[in-house]
Design goal:
Blueprint (H helix, E strand, L loop, with lengths): L2 H7 L5 H10 L7 H15 L2 H10 L6 H26 L4 H4 L7 H4 L5 H15 L2 H13 L4 H29 L6
Helix pairs in contact: 2-10, 3-4, 3-5, 3-8, 3-10, 5-8, 8-9, 8-10
């Protein structure tokens, strides 16, 4: 499945998502690897098989095997970390914030790609998963590495549109399967 096929599968009311996917596919604020990896990591975080397939075909095919693996690793690690650190941030008992996580995260230290790219993909996934503590931590690391606000925002915009596409397609599939389709 291609990006064009994915866009064409969106309902007419989601025209803005189609336009945003087209614009973000050539987002100039990011390098090609950053852009492609952000699409891949965000698609994996979306958990929608159709979106994952289309993004893998369109963007994953333009990446090295190492970069694809790193984007997958960012999605996997943030799926774990976002739950843990969101808990530690949201729970009233502050003891958890000073306790070590005791979770293996060695890929973060050696992701197989430029650390900045991995941080960017981790930020995009953390935005989708709604972990404020992780969003803050990754944004801070990206700024320390010299990435500007426009590039960081571009990655989050990609994450937002990929997630919205997945949510819309999933919602449409559920709606069509319901008894409400006659409405």
């Amino acid at each position: 499945m291609s990006l064009e096929t994915l866009k064409n599968s969106l309902p007419p009311y989601a025209k803005d998502l189609k336009l945003n996917l087209s614009t973000l596919a050539s987002e100039p604020a990011l390098t090609e690897q950053q852009r492609n990896g952000t699409f891949v990591a965000a698609a994996l975080a979306s958990r929608n098989p159709g979106v994952i397939a289309a993004v893998a075909d369109e963007f994953g095919s333009r990446m090295t095997a190492e970069a694809v693996t790193a984007a997958k690793a960012a999605a996997a690690m943030m799926a774990m970390n976002n739950v843990y650190y969101r808990f530690a941030h949201l729970v009233s008992n502050r003891d958890y914030q000073s306790m070590p996580a005791k979770l293996r995260m060695s890929v973060i230290g050696k992701p197989g790609v430029d650390k900045t790219d991995f941080e960017l993909w981790s930020l995009a996934v953390s935005a989708i998963n709604g972990c404020g503590a992780c969003v803050d931590a990754h944004e801070r690391e990206l700024r320390k590495a010299g990435m500007n606000a426009e590039a960081i925002q571009a990655a989050v915009r990609i994450a937002a549109v990929v997630h919205a596409t997945a949510a819309t397609l999933g919602g449409e599939a559920a709606f069509e399967a319901s008894e409400l389709t006659a409405v």
